[in-house]
Design goal:
Shape of chain A: elongated
Number of domains of chain A: 3
Oligomer: homodimer
Distance between the termini of chain A: 53 Å
Structural class of chain A: alpha/beta
């Protein structure tokens, strides 16, 4: 049988994994799709560089256009990363009738709609399972597994770097800066960790998940983002005492036709299944009106886990080719995007306050909450001997973000509160 | 647009959920598939019975053949249960070119191959996501999500009744018989609970999961089954002291081309993600060569969770109808089934022994293990004052089942061991 020919853009970590899987599992793959799959051409930055895997040098090229315009190639597997240039290659490949498998979250978060529309017009597939949560097949789960349900909430630990850092801080009591340095040494964090630790990477993934889950176009600018660089050991220790873990959660919610999406460090009740997702693992918790609570757990990154998703997409594309139905299964959003206002976004909150050490302070603080119509679930006053300022921890009942902002504003001019040390959303 | 017509066999818990979802989510569904979905005829046992949901009485029939032979019906949704008669209806429906969505694990575990072959010959779809782990889309995950990988292990908590019982026994210290009675009152256990508590229900589900995961036909008689009726409070308490939970696990393993499948109460290390799956929840843990560890968690049963999977399958069938590709996506196994012998099945083991209270007993026992080439990881001798017989707990290193059977046989004639109180497989 005529082999299906693949053009591979990128031979970094994931690209190498794709070559390994396609070659190592050739029998299993051709049993499933009915013909051999052959990687015909590979884009690399430097043809002369030595590689971890045996590669026929004649397949390597440094010119992406050579692959994109190669008439023999049926499917482009894009694992090179990048946004604007990469988009050009992909649009050109689609123009020429090639199908796309990509692991590129940045590209899909920013230009997903344009690419999917082009694919539909050209009768091509664009699949991107590997773009979110590496080895966890969460994208096909949202598209197919829950096609019958109305998803109301998606919570994701979708960035392994920050989850590794927070896990270490929680389990070993090490300070943020020290764990970050260690993560960089181990290769779990980039030299410039900003995109991970400030939540941008997670925000891009939440853009993709919420677009699929709510069947509405969510843009990156719709996502409220806060990273973990301000999370202190003190916050984590208080969280643990109260039965919470601090996790960087992507949270997407829908009520009727209103949605909200955020990425923020969150206190998660230890009994919630997502609280025990540790280290570099990822997990996506999905709540549907009918299905209730579900969670999907696995490796979020890494050569072979990510390659598993890429090659599973490749199998799906090739099956569609055999059936002649490419470009007809992808799902464009059909709901209008309406964002919740701060009045409509509600959660519990955790506050750590530095307050004056004198009688009547707690009453004064409670009055502020009451004036702003935020009701308090619990108050804890840890003992701090030999200090004139003392700490108060407050956990609220469900309150709107707007009401909580009013509380914080009132504290600015309150004689009782010296400083609001931290504010967290609370889940679970 | 012409509506797609559904014949629903069964209007019990799941059938009612299917009606609710199809009617409640009609807009979402037709947005996805491009035409309305209409439930045209419903098989019930008693037409005159009153229902929880408004149903047009003219749609009800007590004659299954009327639905199966109705030329207007495109898809049969089978949620009536039963095996031999139900198989006849389904084969007849396939013969007439109707597609099938079923939640029937018993049918698929026993006659899956025959039904799928018939479907392939007739160009029809047979989808059965709801047959295992209710709302968790584990079947499409195994078929599609991990199509690129070689799955080496599947561990499942796939029976909610037994997981509820074991969770209660662990968390509240209640005896097996008392929890079972309570579960029956709450409707979590059947009046005759045999199929659940003796592991048969789980075994049928593991037959389906291992067939898909290993791409080889696994039959029910290949599954070694042991239920939970002999699990004592004592076992659970010792497990907890050593850092384990007792769970009824389905365990399917593959090494090269050899497989083994079992259902048995297992001691699971509390740090393993499946150890904290509690109550009626289900979870399936999947290990793949490339993807590593993954886990899928959710409701295993219930009206709406199960209906979610049924209707998601329905959406897939209707999409295939629109594309004209029914009957071409299902996957028949292509690997030859080779079972591991007891010499090839290996795990750690937990043993609780009643032994003589005299010097030299431990040495004598250790000698038995050594003679049988089973090495010991740890020994615990809980103090039991005022008793002539005393207890010893042993956890072994990895050992073959055959070697462990030799140990147990040697204990029968040992003067040191009064009784082997319990033996568990250990995981995690």
């Amino acid at each position: 049988m005529k082999p299906i020919k693949i053009g591979l853009l990128g031979l970094g970590t994931v690209g190498t994994g794709v070559v390994r899987l396609v070659e190592g599992h050739q029998d299993d793959l051709s049993n499933q799709v009915g013909s051999p799959i052959s990687i015909s051409q590979i884009l690399v930055k430097d043809r002369s560089k030595s590689r971890n895997i045996p590669i026929d040098a004649s397949k390597l090229t440094e010119d992406p256009w050579e692959i994109v315009r190669n008439p023999d190639i049926d499917v482009i597997v894009e694992v090179m990363g990048g946004i604007e240039l990469t988009k050009d290659y992909i649009l050109e490949a689609l123009e020429r009738g090639k199908h796309i498998v990509t692991a590129n979250k940045d590209l899909m978060a920013l230009h997903g709609r344009e690419i999917l529309e082009k694919a539909r017009d050209k009768g091509c597939d664009v699949l991107y399972e590997a773009s979110v949560a590496g080895g966890i097949p969460i994208i096909r789960t949202l598209i197919e597994g829950f096609s019958s349900d109305r998803i109301t909430k998606i919570m994701g630990i979708v960035n392994g770097t920050t989850n590794y850092i927070l896990t270490k801080m929680s389990q070993e009591g090490v300070a943020y800066a020290d764990v970050l340095k260690e993560a960089q040494t181990l290769g779990y964090a980039e030299a410039d960790p900003t995109s991970d630790v400030e939540g941008l990477d997670a925000a891009r993934k939440m853009t993709i998940l919420s677009t699929l889950g709510f069947r509405t176009d969510v843009a990156l600018e719709h996502v409220k983002v806060k990273g973990i660089s301000a999370v202190s050991q003190e916050d984590i220790q208080y969280a643990k005492r109260l039965g919470y873990e601090v996790k960087l959660l992507g949270i997407a919610e829908r009520q009727d036709d209103l949605i909200s999406v955020s990425v923020e460090p969150t206190m998660v009740k230890t009994s919630h299944p997502i609280a025990s997702v540790n280290g570099v693992f990822n997990a996506v918790y999905v709540h549907g009106e009918a299905v209730g609570e579900t969670m999907f757990y696995g490796a979020g990154a890494g050569e072979l886990p990510t390659a598993t998703s890429v090659v599973a997409d490749l199998v799906a594309v090739v099956k569609n080719m055999k059936l002649g139905v490419n470009g007809r299964q992808s799902q464009l959003s059909y709901n209008v995007t309406k964002l919740k206002t701060d009045e409509q976004i509600a959660s519990k909150f955790f506050l750590l306050l530095h307050v004056e050490d004198r009688a009547g302070v707690l009453a004064q603080i409670a009055q502020v909450f009451s004036d702003c119509e935020v009701s308090i679930e619990s108050v804890m006053q840890p003992s701090t001997p030999n200090q004139s300022s003392t700490e108060i921890i407050i956990i609220t009942h469900q309150a709107s973000k707007a009401a909580m902002n009013n509380v914080l504003k009132a504290f600015e001019s309150s004689s009782a509160v010296r400083k609001v040390k931290s504010v967290y959303r609370v889940e679970g």
